[in-house]
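Entry 12.
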Amino acid sequence: QVELVESGGGLAQPGGSLRLSCTASGKIVNIYRMGWYRQVPGKQRELVATETTGGITNYVDSVKGRFTISRENGKMTVNLQMDSLKFEDTAVYYCNAYDPGVMLEVWGQGTLVTVSS
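Predicted 3D structure (tokens):
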């Protein structure tokens, strides 16, 4: 069983920064891809950023140049540095771990990010 524990999030002003972190624990030594998704009420969950163990990153266009994803702790932790935040970044952010080799897909509990003046 793999669990994801998220931290970070909260309230920021437009133009400000926040950092999200997510650590995987359990009987696993490698996770192919980890990343962040977000969801606002009434809309589908969307990919924000992901990174594979090989360092391949993928970002939604709306955050390119503002958000940076990174992995550490033996690739079991994924961070999302969010800079130049905008009102439209307000959402619940979910950590995701995915590895098709072991039929793994796990979600974190979600953390709220609010961008408001």
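Annotation: The CA atoms of residues 35 and 50 lie 4 Å apart. The mean pLDDT is 96.
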